[in-house]
Amino acid sequence: MTDPTLAVATRAVVAGRPARKADAPLNVPVTFASTFHAGGEVEYGRYGNPGWSAFEEAVGSLEGGTALAFASGLAAASAVLSLLPENAVVVAPDNAYTGTRSLLLERVAQGRATLRSVNVADAEQVADAAAGADLIWLESPTNPLLDVADIERAAAVARARGALLVVDNTFATPILQRPLELGADIVVHSATKFLAGHSDVVLGVTVTGDAGLQQRLDDHRRLHGAIPGPMEVFLALRGLRTLALRVGQAQANARELSTRLDGHPAVSLVRYPGFGAMVSLEMRGGAAAADAAADAVRLWINATSLGGVESTLERRRRWPSEADTVSEGLLRLSVGIEDVEDLWADLDTALSAVPRNH
Ligand SMILES: Cc1ncc(COP(=O)(O)O)c(C=O)c1O
Questions:
Q1: What does the buried/exposed string (b/e) look like for 193-204 if buried means 16 or more CB atoms within 10 Å of the residue's CB?
Q2: How far is it, in rounded angstroms, from Cα 107 to Cα 259?
Q3: Ligand 1 within 6 A of 168 CB?
Q4: Which helix (H) or strand (E) holds 139?
Q5: Phi/psi at 304 (5° precision)
Q6: In 301-338, which positions are buried (b, 16+ CB within 10 angstroms) versus exposed (e)?
Q7: CA-based nearest residue to 122, from 93, 90, 100
Q8: Beta-carbon neighbour count of residue 249 at 10 Å?
Q9: Pocket test for ligand 1, best of 81, 189, 190 (most atoms within 8 A of CB)
Q10: Which tens digits make up the pLDDT trace of 329-346?
Q11: Annotated catalytic, 97?
Q12: Which of 3, 134, 207, 345 is the most buried (most CB within 10 A)?
């Protein structure tokens, strides 16, 4: 196990490496194997892979629990929802990643759950909705409105109500926020985003400090088979080594850009929670202006997803599944690690050219 007294930036570099012996490689090699010689711990490729274990050791060390890698962030979320009883009562953000909301709504449509949507920035609303709940699902900051929840308070409420507290920590990353330390039961990530960090893999992960929950999640993965590929975990672990540097630089850029964007004539509201690398802009000219800006950028990339070294943006309501609490003219920015002056010049030029009236 990685020394938990090491700083998080150090753990990101050292966790999950092979034992130190002569001629051992510094990185766990990629293992392409569907089966293993009998009598060991792994046995079969749906049950384990040395590359998964290395990635899981590293993420577990950063979040302070035991991790399990999944084929995608939504596969990790599905595994967590499999812990719910039938007719479960779930408290969840009124804006959250659309895929997560769609998963929950699917359960509701099947008659298997009741959903209580709350503004997670309002701790009272979360506490009031928790009566009789089986699960409080937080995403903090939320995607794309960047609402921030009081995780510690929600953990106290969840404990008192006997509900599970799950936190999607994709946007904050364990560099900036560690929900298990704040009392959450399970953390989930779309490792596709900041953890891997280079827009080249789709991957998910769960982390928990509870051995019983870990066993049930592992059983689910074995049986349902939403497993990661060996290359994906290798790339994600390679990306994870620079997580602290990347998050530090991207956050510094995001802070600077959010200050400069505040008061920009094309922008009516800047949403920035004060930390992290995500910024959302409400465009004065609504959907047309947001589309025009997304078309006009030359350095930024008009693309969905986030958390890569490169800066991307998109108008979220171009997706029909996006919540209607999100305005038509909202542009979500994922700030990368480029030079901030280049990012500003490109964004300012694109924003300055767009229509400002509906
Ligand atoms: C906050 C958040 N959680 C979960 C997911 C789902 O992850 P994946 O696309 O890896 O399945 C996403 C994807 O955008 C996300 O933004």
A1: bbbbbebebbbb
A2: 41
A3: yes
A4: strand 135-139
A5: -80, 180
A6: bbeeebbbeebbbbbbbeeeebbeebbbbbbbbbbbbb
A7: 93
A8: 19
A9: 190
A10: 999 999 999 999 999 999
A11: yes
A12: 207
DSSP H or E stretch at residue 58: helix 50-63
Q: Which pair of tokens denotes residue 99?
A: 């895929």
Active site residue 193: yes
> Is there an atom of ligand 1 within 6 Å of 72 CB?
yes
Q: Which atom of ligand 1 is nearest to the CA of 143?
A: 1
Count, residues in the chain: 358
DSSP assignment of 166-224, as one string? EEE-TTTHHHH--GGGGT-SEEEEETTTTTT-SS----EEEEES-HHHHHHHHHHHHHH
**Nearest ligand 1 atom to alpha carbon 192:** 10
**At residue 207, what is the residue type?**
V
Are the CB atoms for 325 and 95 separated by under 8 Å? yes
Best residue among 186, 192, 203 to mutate for probing ligand 1's pocket (most ligand atoms within 8 Å of CB) is 192
CB 258 near ligand 1, within 6 Å: no
Q: Identify the pLDDT of residue 152.
A: 98
Once rounded to an integer, what is the mean pLDDT over residues 263-269?
Answer: 97
Among the listed residues 94, 147, 168, 185, the single catalytic one is 168
The H-or-E segment that residue 100 falls in is helix 98-109
29: left (phi over 0), alpha (psi -120 to 50) or beta: beta
Two tokens at 53? Answer: 């274990």
Which has the closest alpha carbon to 226: 99, 79, 70? Answer: 70
* Residue 99 near ligand 1, beta carbon < 6 Å: yes
Is residue 1 very low, low, confident or very high in pLDDT (cuts 50, 70, 90)?
confident
Q: Catalytic residue at 47?
A: no
Is residue 109 packed enough to be buried (19+ CB in 10 Å), middle (13-18) or exposed (0-12)? exposed
Q: Which amino acid would we find at residue 217?
A: L
- Look up 298 and say whether it is catalytic: no
50-64 pLDDT tens trace: 999 999 999 999 999
Q: Is 192 in the pocket of ligand 1 (CB under 6 A)?
A: yes
